[in-house]
Amino acid sequence: MASGPVSRATYWRRRVFLLVGVLAVLTLIAYACRPSSDEGDPVSSASTDSSAEPQTTPDSGEGTDPSIPASPSAEADDADDSDGGDEADGANGSAGGGSGGGQGVAPAGGAGANAVPQGGGGGSRPAAAPCHPEDVVVSVESDREDYAAGVEPVFTFSLVNIGPSVCTAEVGTKTVELRITSGEDRIWSSTDCVEATAEPVELRRGVPHDVEITWNRTRSWKDCRESVVHARPGTYVAKPYSDYETEGKQVFRLH
């Protein structure tokens, strides 16, 4: 049975029902898709967790007092003091011999810097090999050629290494002698009546090692006579004698 056209009120009533239905469906979909209340805002949640985290404080009864900071400079000073005490010092040797008539022999011009260390200081290198006799030349010089009355002559022994490398020489009255003569007369020797000594001295190539000897202008004898005889005015010759090579002589005059 065919129906006639609907009334205007019925038409709008149907439209309203349809619109309400659509809105109801959209509301259900929106409700189903909204975030869960458990998840919450991540920013606010993190802020809440951070603010809720308890603050820990060091126990006042343990550890270092925070009001007294450690002093780096004090620690550095302690370390320096400790390091300084560990340094080992090597012993310094000295070269020299004796002379007759109570005359002393001493290194000249800081030559003791060449002395071979005798101690076992930490980090010290081993001593150089002994010098060959032909690798060392011994010469002598006087501080002047003429000596007024009462002035004692001073002589300087010079030992020079002419070998190819550093070596150790034995220096002292056992290996080096200064002899003073007048013509054929033996006047004085630096080895008369003194203990034979020999100190190891490291000689670098071409660097002289000097030893000074002072003569008191008296005669000396091998048999160690007690009599004192003064050298007369005149011309004298000083010459080196040694287990090593020697060269030259020194002529001087006493007044």
Automatic annotation (TrEMBL):
- Bias (Acidic residues) occurs at 75-89
Where is the segment annotated Disordered?
A: 35-132
Comp. bias (Gly residues): 93-124
Q: Which domain of life is it from?
A: Bacteria
| Polar residues biased stretches | 44-59
Tell me what this protein is called: DUF4232 domain-containing protein
Q: Which organism is it from?
A: Thermobifida cellulosilytica TB100
